[in-house]
Specification:
Order of helices and strands: EHHEEEHEHEE
Number of helices: 4
Largest sheet: 4 strands, antiparallel
Oligomer: single chain
Shape: globular
Distance between the termini: 18 Å
Length: 162
């Protein structure tokens, strides 16, 4: 696996991964597929993007992670192709994200995770995010309340490595 900074040329592959995760359901609050243009602006090179990295097997993007400003905080999103989760891709992506963000002005990264997303909750706990709040009333567009857990990773913590 190769992990590197994302570029505009990665928009199609990143969109395919994101839309596959959305279609599978259960692990993202995103409910509507995105276009390549939306992925490019929101997650690769738009004005609010702070970091964007991709993981590849050969020439195929198998996962990606982006940190960008949302609700006045640097929020993280991680997406790995269905069937390939829990095989080290997320950890490798986060290592690359930390290399981009450390040494800058940020002191934190925020993750808002669906409360019913057990794999996502386990992933963010494993890489060092800690609970800072929750929104038990968070609901999907169909009205189902799934809740949301709010977590924080301190970029300037002692040791600060995975």
């Amino acid at each position: 696996m190769i992990v590197r900074t994302a570029s505009a040329a990665d928009a199609a592959g990143m969109t395919m991964v994101l839309n596959a995760v959305i279609a599978e359901g259960g692990t993202t609050a995103h409910e509507t597929p995105m276009t390549e243009a939306e992925v490019l602006d929101h997650y690769i090179d738009g004005p609010d993007v702070l970091s964007s990295v991709v993981a590849l097997e050969g020439d195929t993007i198998i996962g990606w992670q982006s940190v960008g400003w949302w609700h006045d905080d640097p929020h993280i999103g991680t997406f790995v192709r269905p069937g390939l989760q829990a095989k080290g891709t997320g950890g490798s992506l986060f290592t690359a994200t930390l290399k981009v963000l450390r040494g800058g002005d940020l002191d934190r990264i925020i993750a808002w995770i669906r409360a019913d997303n057990a794999p996502g909750l386990a992933y963010y706990a494993r890489i060092g995010f800690r609970d800072i709040g929750a929104d038990p009333q968070f609901a999907l567009s169909d009205g189902r309340k799934v809740g949301r857990v709010h977590r924080r990773f301190d970029l300037r913590q002692a040791g600060g490595s995975l």
